[in-house]
Amino acid sequence: DIQMTQSPSSLSASVGDRVTITCRASQGIRNDLGWYQQKPGKALKRLIYAASSLQSGVPSRFSGSGSGTEFTLTISSLQPEDFATYYCLQHNTYPRTFGQGTKVEIK
Amino acid sequence: QVHLVESGGGVVQPGKSLRLSCAASGFNFRDYGMHWVRQAPGKGLEWVAVISDDGRTQYYADSMKGRFTISRDNSKNMLYLQMNSLRAEDTAVYFCAKEDTVLIPDHWGQGILVTVSS
Description:
The complex is a heterodimer.
Chain A: E1 4-7, E2 10-13, E3 19-25, E4 33-38, E5 45-49, E6 53-54, E7 62-67, E8 70-75, E9 85-90, E10 97-98, E11 102-106
Parallel strand pairs in A: 2-11
Antiparallel strand pairs in A: 1-3, 3-8, 4-5, 4-9, 5-6, 7-8, 9-10, 9-11
Chain B: E1 3-7, E2 10-12, E3 18-25, E4 34-39, E5 45-51, E6 58-60, E7 68-73, E8 78-83, E9 92-99, E10 105-108, E11 112-116
């Protein structure tokens, strides 16, 4: 199975900060990676698919990059509504595997 | 608008079985693969299983292979997860999710809690 190692597990940031979250795959997965946002009491939301494609309706401050084994999710200017937990998910092989999650908290 | 509603959760004793259901609406259900994903209390997301649009192909996470069975009824727009030989570590919120052409979830239900406890 492909292991996804996500870092950091949590971070504190202020509104307006640039935030970067990283996922590393245990083997190459081309660009087969998605990013999700989870907020308490709300349905999970896909932000990015195929490593860098922005999901329709997602603000352009979110961006994804990377291929092979290293991927990043960047929030260019953190907004109050972005405080949440973020997960990566590889879609290269089965079983699908998630990263451990990154909780973005208010500084 | 895609709408996914899980049901069938609750408290079950270790070793027992439970079947979760997911009612789908707002899209052509028979055209899309469907996933189950779970989240133990205070933990991260764990992918459980996927079933193809026609129901012929399923994949499972290693820890659930042989105990869980994913199935669907395209005539009723329903997805199911049959869970057998349940363990305390299966306690989690279970989400159903629709996939798109990229073969990962693009829409999710709100989840249903399963508690395995004596």
